[in-house]
Amino acid sequence: MQFDRLPLLKILAECAESQNAAFHTPGHKRGQGSFKAFQQLVGDRTLQADLPELPELDNLFAPQGAIAQAQTLAAQTFGAEQTWFLANGSTAGIIAAILATCNPGDKILLPRNVHQSAISGLILSGAMPIFLQPEYDANLDIAHSVTPETVAIALQTHPDAKAILIVYPTYYGVCAEIQAIADLAYAAGIPLLVDEAHGAHFAFHPDLPISALSAGADLSVQSTHKTLSALTQASMLHVQGERIDRDRIARSLQLVQSTSPNYLLLASLDAARAQMAIEGKELMARTLELADKARSRIAELPNLKVFQPKDWVLDKTRLTVTVTKFGIDGFTADEILHQNLGVTAELPSLQHLTFIISLGNTETDIDRLVQALKQLPSGSFSPTQISEFDLPETVMSPREAFFAGSETVETHLAIDRVSAELICPYPPGIPVLLPGERITKGAIAALKTVLAAGGFISGCSDSSLNTLKVLR
């Protein structure tokens, strides 16, 4: 195959130039009916290329033409046997992966700090989660990944599990021992599913962590837009081996993807694939060089510490900086950088700021980051160590809890009731409660500690934690 080919992008460009009278969707008719302010923002060419499933553009759910060719090229570029383009983000891919491997009541092993899309997959599939506690650095308030030892114990305890799902890498760039976990999945005869949303770039340079497929995973979902050059929401699902029914993957994707996919997103996947096939190693070498410069320069600054875990492989393009020696928390530092100093982080947390360095960054960006960090002010904030907590009792599956009736009660009255909400504190980003789990005094205490320390609670309808939703 010629990797510089752009089958989908080329056809979309040709269709955008068509002079046919459009009596099909979308309603703006190649931009002729667009609101002027929006037209000025995105440009005529973008609106002309915003087209539906015309015959020339192929069908995402039954591809035989340009989409089929583009997906085949993507599979070869990213090291898969088969690839599907995702116009609904990695969320759709994670849900489809669970739907394709688990029937109602089936057990699936997955880390407690899994993305919310996996919980949606549990609700839709009816699968029963067996949660694995990730390793946690209490001093830094950072949750890492699960270890092979944790996975091995879970497999011994639950030999009837149907799949393993891991997050690789974490939001902070920490990578599990994925080859060892893949070996455990292989020995158990079950597929290893990988949420590789933040690792689409791994396959393109030897100094990056090994890609999930190269390590032996059966399925990988990548957010091609997060670290490569596709448009936001454009992702890919890759499969290899025989342990996953590929027809069931395709049918599952039909459940969670729009029947009117945005062809600008799909074409951006085609373009991002071609870019990496042609220039991937060179682009990643340059990105790693920028990341190394940023690390070394920031490490020399007073009151700042660059995150470098001792016992884990780290994606060097993910830069996390601890700011609490200034006496300010990460949320305050983020606001100062963004509002006053012209630098925007990817993820603020209580102690840290996390930055993504990608193929789109420049030397000037690194200079601005370093100069901005030099200007952070001093304060009086002192971090409180967040205690670890025991996993709560699972009373029913997330699916059963989702469809059960609920009511709102004062928090002290919720103890021993069953949660109707997914409640996750930041830090550490590990859910304390999921729908279907019993609420304990310890869980409430852990959540209140996070709030008192300056963190925030995600998922609950009352972020002040005065009330909770419980099952009737």
Describe the protein in words.
With 472 residues, this protein is an alpha+beta fold. Helix content is 37%, strand content 15%. The chain has a 7-stranded mixed sheet, sandwiched between helices. Strands 11-13-15-14 form a 4-stranded antiparallel sheet. A hairpin with a 3-residue loop joins strand 14 and strand 15. Helix 1 crosses helix 11, helix 5 packs across helix 10 (246-256) and helix 11 (263-299) packs across helix 13 (363-374). The longest helix is centred in the middle third of the chain and has 37 residues, at 263-299.
Number of strands: 19
- Largest sheet data: 7 strands, mixed
Query: What is the radius of gyration computed over CA atoms, rounded to a whole number of angstroms?
Result: 23 Å
**Beta fraction of the residues?**
15-25%
Helix share bin: 25-40%
What is the chains' assembly state? Answer: single chain
Mean pLDDT figure: 95
> Per the principal axes of the C-alpha atoms, what is the gross shape?
globular
Strand line-up in the sheet with most strands = 1-10-9-8-6-2-3
Unreliable sequence segments: none
Structural class of the helices, strands and pairings? alpha+beta
Number of helices: 15
Distance between the termini: 59 Å
